[in-house]
Write a structure and sequence with these properties.
The termini are far apart. The C terminus is likely disordered. The protein has a five-stranded antiparallel sheet. Helices cover about 45% and strands about 15% of the residues. It is built from five helices and five strands; from the N terminus they run H-H-H-H-E-E-E-E-E-H. The protein has two domains: about 100 residues, no CATH class; about 100 residues.
Length: about 200
């Protein structure tokens, strides 16, 4: 009986992630197909990807850039819409934009003793505008959640690590279950030393 349970749990670990992934993908495809009125499964998703890619291509042209800038300025004048628009835009830019902010994984003290450490990402290299030129902002994502905390640390308390940002985020969100691939040790003074604010 014990061996049967062991085999069952081992199979569950293998099957469950695949089943959840397939279910979520099917639900996304069906939802998008429903929005666009397509009867062919997955066609709406393909069309959406194509349209977004086309918009990205057109956005790189000079004419489209000026149009998008005008739209951006117009939306930013609307009181309530501006908050939702700017928050969504900043969030996406933080991960995939040209000015990505979640590309500097760091270690920071998790308590007053400094013995415990927390993993996070630098989002601002200097807070000179707030009179805190020697401080940086560090975003600490929560495990198994899309939320997190924003804390201010002296730059001397922040230690950069050499891990890939995506691997670090996956490690945090998974509660430390996902491994962070080992990378080559950086030269002395590069990457592992405390960060300093950019001029």
């Amino acid at each position: 009986m014990r061996r049967f349970i062991s085999y069952f749990l081992r199979g569950l670990v293998f099957v469950a992630p695949i089943a959840v992934t397939i279910y979520v993908c099917v639900r996304i495809f069906a939802t998008i197909d429903g929005w666009l009125g397509f009867s062919v499964p997955g066609l709406g998703f393909v069309v959406t990807i194509g349209v977004i890619t086309l918009v990205g291509f057109l956005a790189s042209t000079i004419l489209a850039t000026s149009i998008l800038s005008s739209v951006d300025a117009l939306v930013n004048r609307l009181p309530v819409v501006r908050l939702l628009y700017s928050s969504t835009k900043d969030l996406l830019n933080a991960f995939v934009g040209e000015h990505r902010r979640f590309d500097s994984p760091v270690l920071v003290p998790a308590d007053a003793s400094g013995r415990s450490k927390a993993l996070g990402f630098i989002t601002q290299q200097s807070l000179a505008g707030l009179g805190l030129a020697d401080y940086v902002t560090v975003y600490l994502p929560f495990s198994y959640s899309l939320s997190g905390r924003l804390l201010l640390f002296p730059s001397s308390d922040v230690t950069r690590i050499t891990a890939v940002s995506a691997d670090t985020l996956a490690f945090i969100v998974s509660g430390g279950v996902t491994d962070i691939p080992r990378r080559a040790t950086p030269p002395r003074g590069a990457g592992a030393s405390p960060s300093r604010p950019e001029p």
